[in-house]
Amino acid sequence: MLSAKDFVKENLADHQNVTSLYNAFKDYLNQQTDLKVSEVPLETLNGAKGYFQPRTNEIVIGGDESDNALKLKTLYHEYAHSQLHGLKSAFKDRPRAYQETQAEAVAYVAMQNIGVDTSNYSLGYVATWAKDKAVIHSALSEIQQVSNKVIELSDGLTKQLGLQEAQKEPEHDLKKLSAQDLNKSYQSLQQQIQQATSPQQKAQFKNQLNDVHHEISERTQKQLKSFTEQNPGIKQPESELDQSLKR
């Protein structure tokens, strides 16, 4: 039976600013939210890279992971679990396959936003859980909501660190935009809606935002479905008894 590990690329493409962003995001969660983020040796995680423990509202990351891009992606993944599957979440009782599909898809979109393509890892991971295409389809709305939140936080931290590139104006043809620019367009339009001075202007920006949202959702769905279809032999892993959400 194939598992996510069969599709893991040993080292995700690194990013020159990924270490700074990882540390800034971890510090933000510890200092500005009710989450606690800590690091432990990988050897204590039984093969996982990290986990979220709903009972204690704690995220644990393998601190000695040498690939800092993978560490950041893991933090995004576990943060998504905390937002969607914590004890107070409306989605905490969703099936494990649903939860893992959501968390890794959020991590994938968030990493794309900073220019790091984790598809070799993320799509394989998602495919081990999302053998039912309906899971992917029904999870997209919640994936998008949390992805936008993670992107907004990360962009804010990146700006504080002085690492942010100048934002590009949205192109008319959304299909020509990269994933990174598409997500930046989404954030830009959200700001423009808030700053709009007339109902007509606000309505125009909302229509543009809906178009961008549709394109992001369509791309995510296509990528996840395509990978699942290309790997029909992938089976969903057996459920784990541990209450923590390990990955």
Automatic annotation (TrEMBL):
Residues 214-247 are annotated as: Disordered. Residues 32-108 form the IrrE N-terminal-like domain. Residues 223-233 have a biased composition (Polar residues). It comes from the Bacteria. Pfam families: Peptidase_M78 (PF06114). This is IrrE N-terminal-like domain-containing protein. The lineage of its organism: Bacteria, Bacillati, Bacillota, Bacilli, Lactobacillales.
